[in-house]
Amino acid sequence: MTILHLALTTDWEAAQKTGEYRHSTLGRTLEQEGFIHACADHAQLHGVIQRFYRDVTDPLTLLTIDPTGLDVRMEVPGDAPEAFPHIYQPLPVTAVVSATAYTPA
Question: How many domains does the chain have?
Answer without folding.
Answer: 1
